[in-house]
């Protein structure tokens, strides 16, 4: 059995697919199987796949019922000890990523870091442990995660959701089934943030709340809603600010100044002369 199954999902993204394939076949580590699930693309993606056919262990191009249906197809064809999803447009950060990461694969789920879009700072889980609080507004970076294939035997991705089934899967196996977890500081992926789960924020929030309402006790769910509303989208940038003391102080002063200006404006608009 190979150590790793790499699965790529693609639909009409031939340029992104070529970039992804190149980043995989150029890895210094080679003990993997490579699977591509294409959703019946008509933009030349199939020709790209055929160009690299000798590097691909299994591929298919046929209509699917959404990204999680395609991911489940890939899982069911995989045979490796771990699965990693490197979908079209994403790429490994360096050629020795797999060689470095697989030295640390001694847990059910191993999660590294990723670079998002044009930003040059790595994002990802920040602590060695993981709790439900980490999933209230965040998640584990899926393209930077290595998941034991055995976890999928009873937990394929829920195809009833469009953008959050990987998040739901992580909650199920890590929180409710207490699977082992390891956080590593290696930058695994350069992540293409133009996908549906990255751009459709409203749908993501709706689906998350639907899932949590079904799995949490009512009063715990109310706590989640309160916390989520109090949370800030700037939270993800906190690690960056914490490493830049001068800039951090500048931002603090700027925000404090803006709050004072806002307070003055509110007084004027609510107490007109």
CATH fold descriptor of the largest domain:
Spore Coat Polysaccharide Biosynthesis Protein SpsA, Chain A
Oligomer: single chain
Give the H and E element order: EHEHEHEEHEEEHEHHHHH
CATH superfamily of the largest domain: Spore Coat Polysaccharide Biosynthesis Protein SpsA, Chain A
Number of domains: 2
Helix content: 40-55%
| Continuous helix count | 10
Low-confidence runs (pLDDT<50, min 5 residues)? none
Shape: globular
Count the beta strands.
Answer: 9
User: What gap, in angstroms, lies between the N and C termini?
Assistant: 79 Å
Q: Beta-strand percentage?
A: 15-25%
User: Class of the largest domain, according to the CATH hierarchy?
Assistant: Alpha Beta
Give the helix/strand class: alpha/beta
Radius of gyration: 21 Å
GO molecular function: hexosyltransferase activity
Pfam families: Glycos_transf_2
Keywords: Transferase
Protein name: Glycosyltransferase involved in cell wall bisynthesis
Quickly list its features.
Spore Coat Polysaccharide Biosynthesis Protein SpsA, Chain A, alpha/beta, 2 domains, Nucleotide-diphossugar_trans
Structure notes:
This protein has 273 residues and is α/β, with parallel strands linked by helices. The chain folds into 2 domains: 4-192, Alpha-Beta Complex (Spore Coat Polysaccharide Biosynthesis Protein SpsA, Chain A), CATH 3.90.550.10; 243-270. 40% of the residues lie in helices and 18% in strands. The protein has 10 helices and 9 strands. The chain has helices spanning 14-25, 45-51, 67-77, 97-101, 165-176, 196-199, 201-215, 218-230, 238-242, 245-270; strands at 4-10, 32-38, 58-61, 82-85, 91-92, 109-116, 122-123, 145-148, 181-191. Strands 1, 2, 3, 4, 5, 6, 7, 8 and 9 form a 9-stranded mixed beta sheet that branches. Strand 6 and strand 7 form a beta hairpin. Helix 1 (14-25) packs parallel to helix 2 (45-51). The chain starts with a strand and ends with a helix.
